[in-house]
Amino acid sequence: MITRTFLLSAAAFALAAPVAVLAPTAPAIAQNRVDQRDQVVAALRAISTMQADFTQTDRAGRTVNGTLTLKRPGRIRFQYSRDVNMLVVSDGRALTLVDYDVRQVQRWPISNSPLGALLDPNRDVRRYGRLVPTGNPNVLSVEVKDPAKPEYGTITLVFTRDAGAPGGLELTSWVALDAQNTRTTVRLSNQRYGMNVPDRTFTYNDPRRSQRR
User: Is residue 28 within a helix (H) or strand (E), and if so which, with residue range?
Assistant: First the structure.
C-alpha cells in the first residue's frame, strides 16, 4: 500500500564514506562549508523552472515514478504515474495532497514540510542548512532541519557539479525524514530547465466535486 507519508517524504542516496585527506585548519573548514552552502542556495535560486523524471522509494523498497515540475517562487507538482491515483502540488502558499481514490484533499503550509527547503532555499538552507561530508568534491550534500521544530522533519539535498545546470550544481536527489523517522528516497533524472510553465500547472481538480483527475 502506498501511504501518505511515502508520497510526501523524500530521502536521498547513501553517500560513500569520506576518503582520507589532510585536514585543513578549523577556520578554513568553516569558511569552506559556508561557501558551499551559499553555492547550494545560489543554485536553487537560479532555477526559474525545472522539470525532471523522478523515482520515489520508501524504506521498504516500494517504488513509484512520475514527473516533477518546479517553478519559482514556491510552486511544485508531483505528477505520479497512472497507477498511483494521487497528486501532490504546491501553489506557493500551501502543499496539497489529493487522493482521488477516496476523494480527499489535505492542505498544510509549505513551511511545515521538509520541501520548504527546496522551495525557499534562502530561508531554510541559509538558516538551517548543514554541509554533510561526501568525500567527493563534485558532490555536495546539505541537511536542513529546524531544531526548534522537529515535527517539520529533515531534508537532505544532494547536488552534483554540472556546468550546464543553473548555478553550476544539479539537484540529483533528496532525503526527507518525518517526525516518525519515516524515510523516502527521491532520485531525479532527465532534468530540464527554463521552459515555460503556466501557473495553472499547480492547480488540481477537486475530487470532492468531480471524480475526474
Answer: helix 26-45
Higher pLDDT, 196 or 23: 196
Long-range contacts of 80-86 (CB under 8 A, 24+ apart): 80/7, 84/2, 84/7, 85/213, 86/2, 86/7
List the one residue out of 104, 66, 57, 102 whose CA is nearest residue 84. 66
- Asked whether the beta carbons of 119 and 90 are under 8 A apart, the reply is yes
Q: How far apart are the first and last CA of the chain?
A: 20
| CB-based burial label for 65 (10 Å; 0-12, 13-18, 19+) | middle
Q: What residue has cell string 509549505?
A: 110
pTM for this prediction: 0.78
- Could you tell me the domains of the chain? 4-12+26-191 (2.50.20.10)
